[in-house]
Amino acid sequence: MTRLPPGALLRVLAPALVGAAFGVALQATEPGARLYTTASPGLVAAVVGVLATCVAAFVTLARRRADSATAAATEAAARQAAEEATRDRLRFFMRLDHELKNPLTAMRAGLANVEQAGVMAVATAGTASALASVSVQADRITRLVSDLRKLADLETREIESAPVDVTSLLDEVAEALGEIPAARERIVQVTVPRAPWPLPLIEGDRDLLFIAVQNLVANAIKFSASGDTVEVRASEDGDAVLIVVADTGFGIPEEEIGQVWQELARGRAARSLPGTGIGLALVRVIATRHGGEVAIRSREGEGTMVSIRLPVPDRARTAPPVADLRHNRHTPGKAAV
């Protein structure tokens, strides 16, 4: 937006203001005095044009200032509305946790009493199946409430900040794959650059970053079939470290891509699989709280690639110097320095 230099309008109007002040003073001291002058029509037209330009500039500047103030007010209102929506969502999660905790505890206690009383042994096959289904659904709701509580807590509490070695973190994620039975049926590869230099350290909460990457790997395994490939890759990306988890699994329909980062989002492929729909939302919040970004690309029937981009602190001081090869070429017949 073009802005007039400070004081420019005042300098343009100064002669007119001085003339007006002189006229007022003359009228006050000599009421009967008259001053006559002659001027060419061209000069009069020029003076009128200058005054009209000054008035137009003043009006334009006033409008731009008003528009700028309106835009700032609109942006502030939008930011406040977004913050209020976040607070409302967190209050909803906390209220849901509070309201469901007691009924869930009662349900689980009742099921435990039924099992201890030996009712399951004498129950019909249909009754036993119904009780088992209730137990599974109670466990699912318990996990859902727990995940929502974690999400709400993560968006509000302070997170720890310490140097994190991404290479070591991914090695730990690879070791934890033994806890996922289906991982043995996938081809899982972890690729981390170690030459010519290792990945730079990032700042953050190591435990939360581990949860984020492990969630992505668990999702890749869940939404793929036996024999599919799951790759975990890390690399430098300018002033950040890029962590990518890719698979050759089921993929996500194009119309569902925009919904995957939302809480409780579960696409068609996920409805027949266990889960709460909180995993990717948790990853997004963890990345955002670390000043990072998330992205996803997917083709249905071909696979999915999810990335987390995390900033590297003081990157300008830690980056190795880059030689300019145009001025450092070896000349044949001479020793290279």
C-alpha end-to-end distance: 52 Å
Helix and strand sequence: HHHHEHEEHEEHEEH
Structural class: alpha+beta
C-alpha-based Rg, rounded: 35 Å
How many domain units?
Answer: 3
- Sketch the major β-sheet: 5 strands, mixed
Low-confidence stretches: 324-337
In CATH terms, what is the architecture of the largest domain? 2-Layer Sandwich
CATH superfamily of the largest domain: Histidine kinase-like ATPase, C-terminal domain
Strand segment count: 7
CATH topology tier name of the largest domain: Heat Shock Protein 90
* The CATH top-level class label of the largest domain: Alpha Beta
Count of helical regions: 8
| Proportion of residues in extended strands | 5-15%
Bin the helical content: 40-55%
Mean pLDDT: 76
Give a quick rundown of the structure.
With 337 residues, this protein is an alpha+beta fold. It is 52% helix and 13% strand. Helix 1 (8-29) crosses helix 2, helix 4 packs parallel to helix 7 (279-289) and helix 5 packs across helix 6 (206-222).
Structure explained in plain terms:
The chain has 337 residues and is of the alpha+beta class. It has three domains: 8-80; 90-156; 162-316, Heat Shock Protein 90 (2-Layer Sandwich). Helix content is 52%, strand content 13%. It has eight helices and seven strands, in the order H-H-H-H-E-H-E-E-H-E-E-H-E-E-H. It has helices at 8-29, 41-116, 119-122, 125-156, 166-175, 206-222, 279-289, 315-318, and strands at 162-164, 187-191, 202-204, 229-237, 240-247, 293-299, 303-311. The strands form two sheets. It has a five-stranded mixed sheet with strand order 2-4-5-7-6, with helices on one face. It has a two-stranded antiparallel sheet with strand order 1-3. The protein starts with 7 loop residues before the first helix and ends in a 19-residue tail after the last helix. The relative contact order is 0.08. The model is unreliable at 324-337 (pLDDT under 50).
